[in-house]
Amino acid sequence: MQTFGQQLINGLSLGSIYALLALGYTMVYGIIKLINFAHGDIYMLGAFWGYYSISYFHFNFWLALFSAMVVCAIIGVVIEYFAYRPLRHSARITALITAIGVSFLLENGMSYLVGANARSFPQAIRVVTYHWLGLRVSNIQLLILGTACALMILLEVIIKRTKMGKAMRAVSVDPEAAQLVGINLNQTISFTFALGSAMAGAAGVLIGLYYNSIDPLMGMTPGIKAFVAAVIGGIGSVPGASLGGFIIGLLETAVQAVGLSAYKDAVVYFVLIVILLVLPAGIFGKRTREKV
Amino acid sequence: MLNVKDLVVNYGAIQAVKRVSFNVQQGEIVTLIGANGAGKSTLLHTISGLMRPASGSITYLDQPIQKLAAPKIVRAGISQVPEGRHVFPGLSVQENLQMGAFLRQDHAAVSQAFEEVYTYFPILKKRRHQDAATLSGGEQQMLAMGRALMAKPKLMLLDEPSMGLAPLFISEIFDIIQAIHQAGTTVLLIEQNAKQALKVADRGYVLASGQVKLSGTGAELLATPAVQQAYLGG
């Protein structure tokens, strides 16, 4: 029971990071039907921004988190503008391959600029471990879980309540009709990239704090796992991405807890295969509906 | 008000609109009738800025608009009710209407527009918190019209508003089109339902294979044997 509780907490904090990343995948897919494979690398850039801003500018944790979100939002918008916008009317496969190219560019560009070696993330917050009912919970875990949940709620409010959020939903269901009411497609798509990339930036700073180690290739595996999370939740669905993230985090932790650490990635991909076979639209995926 | 001159629009490899000219004067209801594939929807999409003409011009209030992007055309006062309603599923009725006022900043005027729309379509007020996808076809048509009205257009483009609707709904929709027109909005109406359209229209144009074949007042066209034969079933 104790082990179970312990793993549950570990799984939830890891899962909340996958959830933040998965949100970006699902929102971008929802609006332009592109699987943005460079998304994991935005998370890497967020971690590096956190690293430099804390080490060299002496930002505190909150300022590092907030500035990483802003910087990543800008990078996301710039990438969309230069890499994806010119391909708006091309085949989907063209944009997909471009996304992979952008991913390579960011990974190798960073390796070239800052070096490929891993470095330890500065301790922006002193680790305090609480002992409750035999469970060990660090303040970092609580911080990650709390921050991630707060950001997800904020995102939900933006999408559901604000004018731009409603415009995003309108564009994702019917871009042509959205233009006929005066919604600017490009602005709305930029806004979506900004939101998704800001979430990835936040996830990058949080993971730096959690694992203490960052390197230019750190975005690859979490990026793919977050994509799996988005698929499990139903790609295009925002609550689905959050739920999928938590499922992957818990699953991965559970696999490690039973002593199969070597297979933790394999299990995630196995789940992806099973989901695609039995529930291709994901948990919250919409069956396409049409009305004439 | 709207002046279309020698307009040519290509749709892929097909020339869908071939040197079409027509005009709409302020305060009129003008109808374009024609069979499926006559180029009617292409024409409206070009006016709304979703498609670009290959040649020719579209002037609105003496300004050329054929190169403007869709949001600018909405801002200038032209709103389209697209064929097949195209309401936003997943958004509530109220949110759909709110999107219609996307470009308007004046909150007082927007709430007044809500009241106006709910006066034309009381059913939408009753269903305002419902997902637009759950509405019937007729209600979705009303929502699409309400959404266009939220922008307070000077010129309203309606693309086949009666398509797929029960006869009772059709006459209601046409009554509301006339009410909207009487409240000061100029209307360009595209229809396959030629009889209904010509009855309410001041003037009409008959479009076939991308060209204007006939034009005249609504009553004249209704009495034309060619129109009767082709569109009114003899």
UniProtKB/TrEMBL annotation, chain A:
Family membership, please give it.
Belongs to the binding-protein-dependent transport system permease family. LivHM subfamily.
Compartment(s) where it occurs, according to its Swiss-Prot or TrEMBL record? Cell membrane
Q: Which gene encodes it?
A: livB
Provide the transmembrane region boundaries: 12-35, 65-83, 95-114, 140-159, 189-211, 266-285
The cross-references to Pfam families, in alphabetical order and at most eight, read: BPD_transp_2
Name of the protein: Branched-chain amino acid ABC transporter permease
What domain of life does the native source organism fall in? Bacteria
Q: What is its main location?
A: membrane
From TrEMBL, chain B:
Belongs to which family? Belongs to the ABC transporter superfamily.
Q: What is this protein called?
A: ABC transporter ATP-binding protein
Q: InterPro entries, per this entry?
A: AAA+_ATPase, ABC_branched_ATPase_LivF/BraG, ABC_transporter-like_ATP-bd, ABC_transporter-like_CS, BCAA_Transport_ATP-bd_LivF, P-loop_NTPase
Query: Is Cell membrane there in the keyword field?
Result: no
**What lineage is on file?**
Bacteria, Bacillati, Bacillota, Bacilli, Lactobacillales
Q: Which UniProt keywords apply?
A: Amino-acid transport, ATP-binding, Nucleotide-binding, Transport
User: Locate the ABC transporter domain: which residues?
Assistant: 2-234
Enumerate the GO terms in the molecular function aspect: ATP binding; ATP hydrolysis activity; branched-chain amino acid transmembrane transporter activity
Q: Name one GO biological process term.
A: L-amino acid transport
> In terms of domain of life, where is this protein from?
Bacteria
The record's Gene3D superfamilies line, in alphabetical order, gives:
P-loop containing nucleotide triphosphate hydrolases (3.40.50.300)
Q: Which PROSITE patterns match?
A: ABC_TRANSPORTER_1, ABC_TRANSPORTER_2
